Amino acid sequence: MSRVTTSAGTVRIIGGQLRNSRLQVPVIEGLRPTSERLRETLFNWLAPRLAGMRVLDLFAGTGALGIEALSRGAGSACFVERDRMAATALELNLQRLRLLPSPARLIRAEAAVFLEGRPEAHDLVLLDPPFAKDLWARTAARLESGGWLAESAWIYLESPAGQQPSLPDNWSLHREGRAGAVRYALYRRNAGLG
Questions:
Q1: What pLDDT, in 10s, does the model give residues 3-32?
Q2: Is-contact 140 56, C-beta < 8 A?
Q3: How confident is the model at residue 163 (pLDDT cuts 50, 70, 90)?
Q4: Pairing of strands 22-25, 9-12
Q5: Which of these, 1, 30, 33, 149, has the minimum number of CB atoms within 10 Å of its CB?
Q6: Is residue 2 one of the residues assigned to a domain?
Q7: What is the dihedral of CA 96, 86, 49, 120, to 10 degrees?
Q8: Is the peptide bond before 33 cis (omega within 30 degrees of 0)?
Q9: Partners of 56 in the β-ladder
Q10: What CATH number does residue 26 fall under?
Q11: Within a domain: 172
Q12: Are 56 and 15 in contact (CB under 8 A)?
């Protein structure tokens, strides 16, 4: 989630079993939930592949991306969020939607610290770090080298428009777009090229 100020409110889940459910969003400087339009685009790209996927939502913020994935048929989702207020709001939303303790798991930690732990391979990683920090290359490298990605994993990335983060050579761009100041892109991992 990029860092700009937003007011408290709600985010709507737009598809799947939880369609029209509202997520409570606290007032946190810099919290920027992924827009409905971008989520719709991403999950249209992933629709034929999403069933049963193991999802990792790093820098989860509101958790809208991971919850949208679960709503549309992903098998499980691990949410990683360091901000105490955002993590508490996410936990309450997951409980209200009856996603905790399964198929969701919430980890209250810095993404970098979490990625130093024991890895579990994921089929889809949602990577939307704070835009004010240059975390893309370091996080991508750790995902790739640390055993966090399934052999043919998908990686969704949001970054400032006009910025192309340095990513592992074996991540192939599948689709991309731009919405205002945001570049969004979906990559596919090719383990044989790593």
A1: 333 446 899 999 999 999 999 988 787 777
A2: no
A3: confident
A4: antiparallel
A5: 30
A6: no
A7: -110
A8: no
A9: 78, 125
A10: 3.40.50.150
A11: yes
A12: no
User: Would 4 be classed as within a structural domain?
Assistant: no
For the chain, where are the alpha helices, taking DSSP H only? 36-46, 64-71, 84-96, 111-114, 136-145
Q: Is the dihedral of CA 84, 27, 56, 172 positive or negative?
A: negative
pTM of the complete model: 0.92
**Domain count of the fold of the chain:** 1
Mean pLDDT along residues 34-58 = 95
User: Which tokens in the block code for residue 64?
Assistant: 């809208």
Q: How does 127-166 read in b/e, with b if 16+ C-beta sit within 10 Å?
A: bbbbbeeebbebbbebbbeeebbbeebbbbbbbeeeeebe
> Tokens at residue 28, please?
């946190």
Residue 3 in domain: no
Range of the domain at 141: 9-193
For residue 84, is it left (φ>0), alpha (ψ between -120 and 50) or beta?
alpha
Residue the block writes with tokens 């991306």: 65
User: What secondary structure, in 3-state letters, does 117-134 show?
Assistant: CCCCCEEEEEECCCCCCC
